[in-house]
Amino acid sequence: MGKKVKTGSQDPPKDVFDPLLIESKAPATVVLMLSSPENEILAKACNALYKFASKDDGNKLVLLGLGALEHLHKLLSHEDPLIRRNAIMVFGIMASNNDVKKVLRELDVTNSLISQLAPEEDVVIHEFATLCLAYMAAEYTTKVKIFEQGGLEPLIRLLGSPDPDVKKNSLECIYLLVQDFQNRAAVRELNVIPPLLGLLESEYPVIQLLALQTLELISKDRETRILLGENNGLDCLLNILENNELSDLHIETLAVLGNCFEDVATLQQIQLTGGLKKIVSFLETSTVPDIQKNAAKAITKAAYDSEIRKILHWGEVEKFLLSLLETNNDEVKVAASQAISAMCENMDSKCVLGLQGIPQLVQLLSSDNEELKEAVVTALTNLTTGSPKNASVVAEAEGIQPLMNTLNAQRDGAISNAIAVLINLSLQEPSRVSIQNCGIMRALVGPLRSTNSQVQSKAAFAVAAFGCDADARAELRDVGGLELLVALLQSKNEEVRRNACWAVTVCGSDEPTAVELCRLGALDILEEINLSTNRKNKFSEAALEKLLDNNLCQKYSLMGYLSSNNIITNGFYDCGQVKHGEKFLSLEELSKQELTDRRAIIFINAKPQENVVEEKVQDESVPVSRVSSKEKIRFVADKMGGPIEREELHNFWWELDMSKIEFGLKSNIVPIGKIKRGSFYHRALLFKVLADRNGIGCTLVRGMYNRAWNEVKLVERSPKGLLLPPQEYVVDVMFEPGRLLKQGSAKADQYKYI
Prior knowledge:
mainly alpha, Leucine-rich Repeat Variant, 44 helices
């Protein structure tokens, strides 16, 4: 027998099993198999887990609870490509679950996934690695890690993959990443524009849509818009708009073009190549609300630039915006109104939009949609500001009453802008009268009560605008508006406070309103404001002066000065200087006080003829006649004890006579006609009264230590008969009655000061 020759493989070692085909229906068992040293078992286990996790979300949670992710994470770096592929497939399918994503972040798998994006790796590995990254990239910390670990470059490269799933997953991941501005700059530097534009020609709508959404995000940056133009991207976008078969992409395409509208150079490029005309033509024929709304919003953003407004005007976008006001969709009308507001910053656009758009906008004021109402009145505000013609159009369109009704709107923006339009209309007399006849002051009570500073400010300004009419002021008093106005003087908002001061200045021009404002504490508040270096302004000073001009008693007491325009009438009284912060008492309150040894209160009741007034405080009036200035000065001196030698001034005991008068009247109030021996301040007051009654311009100035004097302005002729500029003089009613002392001279200063 010949020797046997071994023809097959050697028998397996005696100490190991022959290969076994392992089958299991228990997930826990399969997870345990992930620890096997056998490659075939690992590959089959991963494949089984992939199929199990693909069935439903509950299975993903089961595997999560069994610790499968930790084992799979170790397999991502396995040397066997099949095992790596199957492990990544499990990761990709499980990452859709939020709990799974949380654990994946804890395991810090991003670096391992990014390493699988190398060009030499299998397309399936690319597909599921990008899928997992796309799921995880929605969270900010993962975005940071992908950026820091260099994930952007391979993701952009994979946009050119032959596999559509790889493209989609990579694109979705990039879309999520560029929502962060840092990544937008990074992808621009990595030349993402060409591959994105290439994806616009994909046969898969989902990829086209994602590409447009990504372009919309990154084109918010000016540098990207420039690159878009350089890579013929604008033409690609316009081609999509012109293709009716791609109508499902038109909204996103317009969003990208809307960003391009914000850049002058890019918009000029669109306009010069006829693109703007194409866009407007497309928009005018579109009936899709989302397209109309987004287009109007894009115009609104772009129109903040003056140069862009010009280009849009040349493109006649006004026609498109006006057409949107006729749609049946409120959101579209809101967007159109906002775009009109922005566009009318261009005067040419304002003319076009005003003439044709105002009647439409006025009709929309009756809408029940509060957002629309606010957008409409905002547009009307901008249209009528600085445009009397447009203001007239509002009145002609019968817009006054709808605007008045809008003062009861629920949105503060609607109220404040409605007031602004009414203020613009008030600049024209017919409209102002019509608004007043509609009860504007009554309608402003609600806005004056508002807690919104913008509404308060506009309401106060409106009071100033309409308060120039006596009937309007009376209406404001009747409806309790003055109290609300006074409260706004104490606002912490500077603009509100300023406008309230302006309203007080206007309304305080008549005595009844001024007296009521003072009764409500306006004077005290204004005094406090004007003592503050931070809150004082020209408006608060003007308001205080206006109120004091109609309350001369308090003005003289507080300021120690009455101008030639401050005419003293019956009822005036001089109670001396009141310090800031002290309450100023009325004559009635003063008359109820007990007799004191303090300075007498001098009361004026001058009448054309001498008579005796029944009331003790009005006893003995001063006779007034049409006499010359010098005669008045001599009359004042004679009435109050005659001329006094300067050296004998200390022997002129007028205080004793004054005390006797007070004692005789049993009152601190002394009618000026009772005084027979008067000093500087008595005589200066009497001269001011007489001068005012006879139309002679004269001031009354209070000095220190019972000094007071009058100042007059006189015009003299030059030797050649020419009129010289008026000169100020101090009137001497004490020492040499009738003498005029030139202001600033030593003798004038000697007269005024001790």
